[in-house]
Amino acid sequence: MAEKNSLTRRTLCIGVGATVAMAGLGSLRYLGSEALVRPPGGQNEENLVSKCVHCYRCIEACPEQVIVPASIGSGVLNMRTPRMEFSDCYPGQLDDFRYCDMCAERNGGVPLCAEVCPSGALTLPADYTPDSEVLGVAVLNTETCIAYRSSFCAFCHDVCIQVRGEDKAAIYYQNADASDALDTRLPVVDAAKCNGCGACEAVCVSAQAGSAMDASERAIVVKPLDE
């Protein structure tokens, strides 16, 4: 009987200790966690991780279907929290692609994901405007980008102008020669203008079969600001 009581107390102590440890991690980034691109209002990582109740309401509310739950591979605390996914659509479709427009067309520029969040994990800044919210920044891999490797490709450049307009577009060309030959145009990301909407990643064709077969991701991908 004494041995049974001892084991019970030991098990209880281990359980309490583990609970306290995990609770303490709730306000900190877990050591092995991956930095993720979050939905609008989720850029305060500590607030999101500590308040998210994994209800999936933001995922269900997203009209563009670009919010998905993070997996265990992104870290224990990140698991089942919302992250942005822009590569889950067919590349090269300028008329049919998914990105985050802050629900400009559907809810007057107020992101539905933040509006339906019941816990405050997604909280828009007091001075929020659709133009001021920044989800991340597009990062271009010149080793897998078709324009840098072989021939002219304009998908990311064209869609950025289509979505953001000429003045606000974050992707421009460099190295155009005097004759303006297409095969000398190399896309460049202006990080200061990028809001991480994901349109460029959505249409990128670099990882399509026959282009960069060994690529693990598209040549232009939205990354977290603090990565």
TrEMBL record:
InterPro entries, per the entry: 4Fe4S_Fe-S-bd, 4Fe4S_Fe_S_CS, TAT_signal
Membrane-spanning intervals of the chain: 12-31
CDD domains linked: DMSOR_beta_like
Pfam families: Fer4_6 (PF12837), Fer4_9 (PF13187)
Record-linked Gene3D superfamilies: 3.30.70.20
Tagged with keyword Membrane: yes
Domain (4Fe-4S ferredoxin-type): residue spans on this chain: 42-72, 185-215
Keyword terms, alphabetized: Iron, Iron-sulfur, Membrane, Metal-binding, Transmembrane, Transmembrane helix
Name by which UniProt lists this protein: 4Fe-4S dicluster domain-containing protein
